[in-house]
């Protein structure tokens, strides 16, 4: 007779692609900081070419490692990790994060005590940088008028001292409360809710998958909340350490266009597509890169 394995309280799912050192520090912080609940760590490796999986096997033998034969993107890899989860909750955690306190237990306790009506879909914390400054942790759902204003600011004003100060402090306007979406860097979700909603949309290779999932939560009447207490450093962008590459531009804009096509209607999609095509006039990219960009947007 087979014995059914006891369910954990939380499964921590980490997607990694060539982040050996970051991943080691992330997992190390999980085991050092987490106590008073049962948990498991699941690493989904997107066919890394470094020694990520070997380092994990050598230093953290209890971690479940799923090594994929190809890079399937963040959303697909996260879905696979959630399929392996044997727990009540799943915490999607970026490999470039470091836990500074018993954050997982704090997330767990909050859900257990505040979700009696089963109307909370996800929670997250206010992420910090290495200087303890609050950084991007949540946001509003994409909307054409708002995104156009943001793109104009990014192009014309981001280098100004005033706008830099705004970007740095905008997340300090609330300490906790309801938000449109929580970033995928520390997204804590009941496994039942995640699976009922179908997980992340597989057509988002990278970016906007968490916004899309949480928009579906909103349509189901499920709240998303940023909560006080958990302390997590996010080395923002370190897990994708080429900030201005054409590939990153392609991933971001394709996902943004997919979000618009799926959720915001044909007119908004077409208008955004036209605006994105104007990017080919940016002097930041070569002629060859702009041709690659146009081809990628048309797929």
- Please tell me how large the radius of gyration is: 19 Å
Strand content: 15-25%
Structural class: alpha/beta
CATH class call of the largest domain: Alpha Beta
What distance separates the N and C termini?
Answer: 51 Å
Q: Assign the CATH superfamily of the largest domain.
A: Spore Coat Polysaccharide Biosynthesis Protein SpsA, Chain A
- Assembly state (oligomeric): single chain
CATH architecture of the largest domain: Alpha-Beta Complex
Total of helices: 11
The main β sheet shows up as: 5 strands, mixed
Question: What is the succession of H and E elements?
Answer: EHEHEHEEHEEHHEEEHHEEHHH
Total beta strand runs:
12
How much helical structure, as a percent, in the residues?
40-55%
What is the residue-averaged pLDDT? 88
What's the number of domains? 2
* Low-confidence runs: 157-174
Query: Which word captures the global form?
Result: globular
Describe this entry's structure for a reader.
Helix 1 runs parallel beside helix 2 (about 50-60), helix 9 (about 245-265) runs antiparallel to helix 10 (about 265-275) and helix 9 (about 245-265) runs parallel beside helix 11. Residues about 155-175 have low confidence and may be disordered. The protein has a five-stranded mixed β-sheet with strand order 3-2-1-4-10. A three-stranded mixed β-sheet has the order 6-11-8, sandwiched between helices. A two-stranded antiparallel sheet has the order 5-12. By secondary structure, the chain is α/β, with parallel strands linked by helices. It has helices at about 20-35, 50-60, 75-85, 105-115, 145-155, 160-170, 190-195, 210-220, 245-265, 265-275, 285-299; strands at about 10-15, 40-45, 65, 85-95, 95-100, 120-125, 140, 175-180, 180, 185-190, 225, 230-235. The chain has two domains: about 10-140 and about 175-235, Spore Coat Polysaccharide Biosynthesis Protein SpsA, Chain A (Alpha-Beta Complex); about 240-299, no CATH class. Strand 1, helix 1 and strand 2 form a beta-alpha-beta unit.
